[in-house]
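Tutorial, part two.
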Amino acid sequence: MKVFKDIISGDELCSDSYPHKLIMDDACLEVKGRYVKKGSDQIAIASDDIIEEDENAPTVVDIVDSFQLNEIQMTKKDFMAYIKSFLATVTQRLESTGKAERVPAFKKGATELTKLIVSKFDEFQIYTGQSYNMEGALAFSYQKEQDDTGPTFLYFRDVLREEKF
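Running the prediction step on this input gives:
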């Protein structure tokens, strides 16, 4: 299994155990989350061997719960201030780590992702990692399709490092 960690904060943000793909010139990692009942120890077995979940168990988003993501509140103005600084930091890191050839595709894909977030800003929930480091990567989730079984998470891929476990 691979875990995706923010190179700025060191926080674990997701893993390859969830359905995922790269989009927007590989600048965005799109990950599918699901709504699940928390606590597998709360499963009751009915008399006719049908397994039912405890109705009192809270429903959570699997990615948020697994990686202890923390929802934060941002206005669109706050987001624009954050993203300007964040994208400059990522571009600088790419150049300083010998990945300058990646910068044009990153800028193009990051611009596309930023436009998507801004255009549907009121539909997004924004999360920070466990450390609440606001200079690091954020996770953006929204209900991409009405019939989805959970939210879709979007991450700026170039600020994530894969660690194999």
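The chain has one domain: 2-38+56-164. In part three we will examine how such features are distributed along the chain.
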